[in-house]
Every structure is written in structure tokens, then in C-alpha cells.
Write a structure and sequence with these properties.
By secondary structure, this protein is α/β, with parallel strands linked by helices. The protein contains eleven helices and six strands. It starts with 5 loop residues before the first strand and ends in a 9-residue tail after the last helix. This is Two component transcriptional regulator, LuxR family.
Length: 213
């Protein structure tokens, strides 16, 4: 008896990448591409009709806040969820994993490499990009008594990488003014007055991972 092909739905805002993923999946032969969507809410409306076995999603889609997409999928329809994104914030990664996703893959991989990961997931496995594995390991070595919130830790990690207010806002999908507010709160909680002081104290107190970029 022939093995049923896994039904796949792709949610990706970037038109070129979405088309590339779709083309690759269609020509592999192991899967049935049911549908592709630019926006998450359109996919959610049609999820029972599409009946996917695997959903590939970039959690940076603009019409829903990061992990809320995974939560909505979990409550609406049971399936394997594969995150395919540029977001590597430790708190987001670890929380996504806690929600039961089957894969967290960064977009610095080739589409052929992505399909290899997809094959592992389709056969019941789970995958992480190598750098995501390091991020997760580093995260669990951090100080559990941090005074910072998850979002403040993400902001401070990006500050340590030299990111600007606008770059932080873009990466975390928040307003620039919100990133500034987070930084002010970080200064207050750590009793510092500058970015360099904040980063130095955070590294000394193991509030952010060392060398993650």
C-alpha cells in the first residue's frame, strides 16, 4: 500500500521565498502542497478545508504577534508546525519549542537543505538549525534569577550585537519607541546609565548569552 503524502501549507510573506518553497515542495514528489498564504489569518480561516499534516510558517508575519500564531494553530487544528524564520531570539525559540513545534529552522539554509529537514519531520523527527541548538543550550545556562523580562532580555541581547533602536524594533516586530522604552527599563533594573554598562553588567551576571549573533 502506497504511503500517503503529507499535506503541506506554507505561510510566508515574502512572495519570492514563498514561491520558491512551493516550487521545491511540488517537485520533490514526497508531499502534497495544499496551499500557500501570505498572511496567517487567511491560512487560519481555511485550515479545516486545507487539512494539512505539516504547516511551514514564518512567525514574523505581520498580521499576528510571533508565537500567537503557533498557539492559534495548536488550538484550532492538530498538525506538525515547522517554524522557518530569521528570528533567533532565545526566549522566542525556547517558548516556541515548549509549544510543541516539530522544527525551528533559520532561513540561512538552502531549499534543498530545508527539504532534508522536512523529510526528518515528516518521519516523526524534530529538527533545529545548528545555530538554534547553540542558542537553546546557551539559554539554559543563563541566570534563572534575572530581573529582566523575556522581551527586555531579547532587546539587551540585540544591543550587545550593536543593533540600533530601529533594527531592534524590526527584528522583534515592535515599534521603535517601544524598543526605547524597553532600554530605559533595562537601565533602571540594572542600575546603569548606558548601553555599554548594561551589556557589561548583563554579561557579568549571565543575563544574556555570550557570542550569539
Amino acid at each position: 500500500m502506497a504511503k500517503l503524502k503529507k499535506r503541506i501549507v506554507v505561510i510566508e510573506e515574502d512572495d519570492k521565498l514563498r514561491d520558491g518553497i512551493a516550487f521545491t515542495i511540488e517537485h520533490v514528489g514526497n508531499y502534497t502542497l495544499v496551499n500557500t498564504y501570505k498572511f496567517f489569518n487567511d491560512a487560519l480561516k481555511n485550515i479545516h478545508r486545507d487539512c494539512p499534516g505539516i504547516i511551514i510558517i514564518d512567525i514574523a508575519v505581520s498580521d499576528i504577534q510571533n508565537l500567537d500564531a503557533i498557539r492559534a494553530l495548536s488550538s484550532k487544528f492538530p498538525c506538525q508546525v515547522v517554524v522557518f524564520t530569521t528570528i533567533d531570539a532565545p526566549q522566542i525559540v525556547t517558548e516556541a519549542l515548549s509549544l510543541g513545534i516539530s522544527g525551528y529552522i533559520l532561513k540561512n539554509i538552502s531549499l534543498s537543505g530545508f527539504i532534508q529537514y522536512l523529510d526528518i519531520i515528516s518521519n516523526g523527527g524534530a529538527v533545529l538549525s545548528p545555530s538554534i541548538t547553540k542558542i537553546v543550550l546557551d539559554f539554559f545556562h543563563l541566570n534563572p534569577y534575572t530581573p529582566l523580562s523575556h522581551r527586555e532580555t531579547d532587546v539587551l541581547r540585540l544591543i550587545s550585537q550593536g543593533k540600533t533602536y530601529s533594527e531592534i524594533a524590526l527584528e522583534l516586530n515592535i515599534a521603535t519607541e517601544t524598543s526605547k522604552t524597553h532600554i530605559k527599563n533595562i537601565y533602571k533594573k540594572l542600575n546603569v546609565n548606558s548601553k555599554s554598562e548594561a551589556v557589561r553588567k548583563a554579561l557579568n551576571d549571565k543575563l544574556i548569552p555570550v557570542g550569539v549573533d
